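step: validate -> pass
step: tokenize input -> pass
step: predict -> running
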Amino acid sequence: MTVPSFKRKCLVLAVLLLIGEGYCSDSNGACSKATLPEVQAITKGPKFHWFGYYDKLQFDPACRYALGMEVDFEHRSPTPNDTIKVGMVDLKDNDRWVELGESRAWCWQQGCMLQWRPKSSSQVLWNDREGDRFVCRVMDVKTGRRRTIPYPIYHISPDGKWALGTDFSRINDMRPGYGYAGIPDTSRDVMTPAGSGIYLVNIDSGEHKFLFSVADIAKFRYGGQSAEHKLYFNHVAWSPDGRRFLFFNRGQGVTTQVYTAAADGTDIRFLAEQSSHFAWRDPRHVLIWSEGAYRLYEDNGSGNGRVVWHAPNGHVSYLPDQNWVVTDTYPQADQRRQEVYLYHIPSGKKVSLGRFHSPVQYKGEWRCDTHPRVSPDGNKVIIDSAHRGEGRQMYLIPITGITDSVRQK
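step: predict -> pass
step: emit ->
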């Protein structure tokens, strides 16, 4: 006897929900439903919601609001005419969606660089497009007052005064999903352009200073690169004290290289190669996934990293006490489960927060990585996921009891 098509689909969905939130694996491979925390949906359809990358401030300082973006389609590249809504979820008012604005400068993996301004309880920033240039909007969510910075930003310094930016047109040309459509890369046929690079912007005045170019970094002979390789920059992030910043140099036919530089663009140091996701631990050390392990690198130019633990590649962030990190995996095996977990560095204990099924259509440029983001108080994690069959949505996972229980042992 065959199961009717509708019932069969319902059965499959129920199984996927169990896969997504019902079972997890600890460091010994054992499964336990009871150890999983509750996973709370904080957005819902029919539209789709996500935040994107894990290295921006999604929460306000009081941890009441969580920023996010809203779109009405999935599974294709954005066009120059596709607009997304920018908003925030009020976690203390039944997860009410509060619309803030919109953007025509966005991508699936990093959105529009939407982020809370450090040291501010009311200002948020995001990138947008005006005519033939990308810009950044600054909004006070309490007063509704807005202004525009004439340059797009990437990451804001810990004191909230400065932003780093780079060439989003070149990124879009070389790696769709991370740059913005709508403004072609004028240096598309140039391997190492002198006009494409990293710049500094004062958030209050809009003052702009170009720091260094792709051509400058092409002179560093790491990763087998030369002036004949087409290179670009991505993943720019301030150190915790704002004195230095990290950036990725990538290209066609070369390994990924990670560098750091002083805030004014001088004192450029090689940090690591064959690298992926990262998190600053403190002003002198960076945790980077490289060659099958999370490794801790000192920012001294040596390029030497110490293995902290072996694990699949994931998007890693430190919790406030720095003894814990939260990270994830890409879809694993045929079941396409993305595991989100905590790792306690002093004890080496791994605590799974859940495994979330990623439907097969979420792949490539428009995949839905979970990108776990931790709240400033260290009590919550928010992820993006499509595991419930409602498209990409945002989910909150409380972690206070988990971290406290391990500390007490």
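step: describe -> Confidence is low (pLDDT under 50) at residues 1-34.
step: cleanup -> pass
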